[in-house]
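WARN no homologs supplied; continuing
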Amino acid sequence: MNISLLKKIPDNEDLIILGKQDSPFDMYLQNNEEKGYLRHALGDKKKQIIINQYKRWIFLHIIEENKKPGHQVLEEIRKGGKKLLQAVNDKKIKQVCIVDLSADASYFYAFIEGIALSNYQFLKYLTKTSEEVNSLNTLHIYSNVLKKKQVEELIHLIHGVYLARDLVNEPLSYLTALQLSKEIEKIGKDAGFSVEVYHKKKIESLRMGGLLAVNKGSIDPPTFSILTWKPQNAKNKKPYVLVGKGIVYDTGGLSLKPTFESMDYMKCDMAGAAAVAGAIYILARTHTPLWVVGLIPATDNRPDGNAYAPGDIIRMYDGTTVEVLNTDAEGRMILADALSWAKKYNPELVIDIATLTGAAQAAIGNYGIVAMGNAGNEIFDIMKSSGEAVYERIAHFPFWDDYAELLKSDIADIKNVGGKYAGAITGGKFLEHFTDYPFIHLDIAGPAYNKIKDSYRGKGASGVGVRLLFNFLKRRA
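OK structure emitted
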């Protein structure tokens, strides 16, 4: 989608106007009939009003300021943008000017987010798209409060979410681990951050046992991608490290998933990797003065004749021995090697993001992100605040040492599963074993992929995590 800031409102272009109940909408109306209709609609407390001026359409969205917390008002505005976009596309409008009468930059920013994120489509594999393609492709923006730098940030943020959604929506028939790394290299070249990809021989020489074990059942090689954004004016001497789970498809391995809908959407098991790539894209594009490293271990998980099996003992990159009791707990195996690798950076903070456990989704549904870790309450409070700001809310789970007891093995240093209860937390505790630095674990199993439309998050890949990570890291800068 093309987005640009205008200095003047075009005379004959269709308009979308954001305002409050008392905003001066009349200045855009042509006659008393239109003004009378507007007053009547406002009296009826309508939130969206459409006026046909024959030469152009005018779409009005009325902000309802109420006693709800500010982040909830912003989310209602985003959803209002989604609803209004549907009316614009129904009328086959190709470009529109969005006018701000709200006098609030955060309101206007959220409104454009809602419209632009709602307009995303993944149509690559449709042979006939004439009826499916959204007509709207250009947004012109006119505002006295939203500055040029904010518009540029918004443009890059939208594109970063689009990139992440595209990666998650790609099927394994295209997006193997090798292709994922190639796509990340393209993104890095476009945005200006560096990408180094380790291939199988290098991974073997490093003895990344977790990644290699999961890959044993695949006919495609694994990759380990290192993304680096380190501007000269970086404000941090120690990097923030983002670790993204890159399981490009998950059958469960020999611990094969049951059939009905449990495997159908498992191309989304690399949504964490996509979120890391999307967030670093935005950081680089906006020249955020922060040193950030992304680590993405990638493979698929299949039940081939040579696949790793329940009962196997795997020696990980850091030397830890792991008793495998469930090959469907594979995400933590590849993330563990990446978390051990992160020690090389003496990081300020490490955040891993992963579609790790069905237990997280069972606990809170698709309404937020399960988070845990040892980073301390101050950092978690900032993460929660970022989650509210972008409405990717954080559910902070306990991380008591008692849960680590469930991972003890009789024949190895640690087991890869903890038992029937607290599965999301024991997954996080497994990962913590491979850290020696401040650490946050984000489990996005619930909101990463929508089987039905979810407002501006759409159907299919949601791009969850991209806006959260960018907002959090921008605050740290």
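The domain at 157-476 is CATH 3.40.630.10 (Aminopeptidase).
OK
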